[in-house]
Amino acid sequence: MESDSFELRLSRAFYGRDTVTVARALLGQRLVRVTAGQRLSGLICETEAYRGADDEASHAFRRTPRSAIMFGPPGVAYVYFIYGNHFCLNTVTEDAGCPGAVLIRGIAPQEGLAFMRGQRPGVADVRLADGPGKLCRALNITVALNGADLITDPALFIETGEPVAEHEITAWPRIGVRGGAETRERPWRFVWSRAT
DNA sequence: CTCTCGATGCGCT
DNA sequence: GCGCATCGAGAGA
């Protein structure tokens, strides 16, 4: 898997499905970042689904210049800047015209540990990328990668990882969402228990 | 133009 | 557990 890993990449059809389905299916897959001439990777162990007009917590609840990318074709990276300090990485889902994205909230680091430690000095290995902002810092992901096509981009993509059994997945309410009770209580945060 | 506040993380208590 | 840094997107005027 070292050199050309194109055949291992998840297909556009993988992303072009129901957002909640994709959020679950992304658990166990391998997020890969190529930067400074080296491969960094980790298995996705936590995700959240964000939909469209039916999801008050989603950026795509309203169509704005920033959220327009969520209305576009699937398999594209949506990276945004938050709290003045952090970036968050999402993958666009659903067919073009139907908004949706999955927030990647955590990975279990596999390749490039030395680089990640350099990005986050003093942090224990298991915590290098266990939050949405943390993983972007560890993998050097910024808004420069907003719009990157995960099917073709050499610097950012997702490969088939390890199979995840249904009983290893737990669903929880999403973190930090405001809005009505129904919005807050939706169990659209998925955690791969085996990885943590 | 101005104001509010966030799909967070870190440091301190 | 709690406060705060830090700044751009989005909304209202």
Give a concise summary:
With about 200 residues, the chain is an alpha+beta fold. Helices cover about 15% and strands about 30% of the residues. The protein has a single domain, classed as Roll (3-methyladenine DNA Glycosylase, Chain A), CATH 3.10.300.10.
Account of the protein in words:
- It is a single chain.
- By secondary structure, this protein is an alpha+beta fold.
- It has one domain: 3-methyladenine DNA Glycosylase, Chain A (Roll), CATH 3.10.300.10.
- It is built from 5 helices and 8 strands, in the order H-H-E-E-E-E-E-H-H-E-E-H-E.
- It has helices at 12-15, 19-25, 113-119, 132-138, 181-185; strands spanning 30-35, 38-50, 77-82, 86-92, 101-111, 156-159, 169-172, 189-192.
- Strands 1, 2, 3, 4, 5, 6, 7 and 8 form an 8-stranded antiparallel sheet that branches.
- A hairpin with a 2-residue loop joins strand 1 and strand 2.
- The longest helix has 7 residues, at 19-25.
- The chain is globular, with a radius of gyration of 16 Å.
- The model has no long low-confidence stretch (mean pLDDT 95).
- The structure holds a DNA duplex (13 and 13 nucleotides).
